[in-house]
Amino acid sequence: MRIQPFDYWAAPGLNEALNELDLHGADATVIAGGTDLVLNMKKKNILPRRVISLHNLNELDFVLTDESLDNDSVRIGALSKHADLAENPFLKQHFPILCEAVGLIGSWQIRNVGTIGGNICNASPAADSAPPLLVLDAQLVLASKKGEKKISLESFFTGPGATVLEPDQILKEIVIELPKQPSAGCYMKLRRRKAVDVSLAGVAFQAETGPDRKTLAKVGIALGGVAPTPVRVPEAEALLAGRTLDEAVTKISDCAEIAAKAASPIDDVRATASYRRTIINVFIQRCAQNVLNTLKNSGGD
Ligand SMILES: Cc1cc2nc3c(=O)[nH]c(=O)nc-3n(C[C@H](O)[C@H](O)[C@H](O)COP(=O)(O)OP(=O)(O)OC[C@H]3O[C@@H](n4cnc5c(N)ncnc54)[C@H](O)[C@@H]3O)c2cc1C
To answer: 7-53 — its CATH code?
Structure first.
């Protein structure tokens, strides 16, 4: 598979990259780690005339923590690499679900070059960072020469490989609000054994208690690899939200059933739709149990 010839230019900074995108529009595409883009260029799914590298944009490789908190939120630069995020102490403390998920992406070689921005913008239905970011109500900051715009991750994906990103926009950063009360999360993915592979199905489950530490104030459930885009399952979330931890435990299997029914998986060479649905059901139950136990042990008896 040979790549069609293209012009390559490494942007020295974000402004220069945005100017270049503004100039070349849909003829240009940006490259971060290249782990998705290069394969797509080889397969001729994307045939850009100009490739703009973001490699030198250290200004987009950051996790802003404690001392630089903006409205009780954490900001993650789009060029942050999976390996760094998986080990980031601040994220491990506040959003372990995200660290777990990015720590499961590909192999260590892929995690050392692949970026969270690339994982989101590539818009694979099975992107591992997407379900955790969905349940954390992540917001995306999109930059263009015209200025910046903040949108929810939930409104970003429009189909497999498709997003609302305009040709002149770059994903600059991801913003997540810090939990105000005890919270816990769990991510599980199914992949072929002994393979470096994207997930066949993935489940993210996140919950936060109210000030009483006994009631579930927020519940987030999202699925990957079982619909045209990563999706949240509001009907399953609604079954648990507002309940005490003890009540919620008794509703786990109903919740898993609702989520499995809401999925729209496909049959392919890697797994049947019905197997994927079964896995969703099992993973929701395991994740929910794990999260509720953690919340109980953190003081919500
Ligand atoms: C062997 C292998 C195993 C893999 N395993 C997994 C896995 O287990 N789980 C998983 O989720 N993924 C997996 N992947 C896919 C891939 O590694 C990830 O999606 C990675 O995070 C992509 O990031 P990148 O920086 O390499 O993106 P790139 O390939 O550079 O870019 C991907 C797309 O996003 C666009 N883009 C990148 N950054 C930006 C930005 N800041 N703003 C706007 N557009 C942007 C590019 O134009 C391109 O269209 C695997 C890939 C390989 C090759």
So the answer is: 3.30.43.10
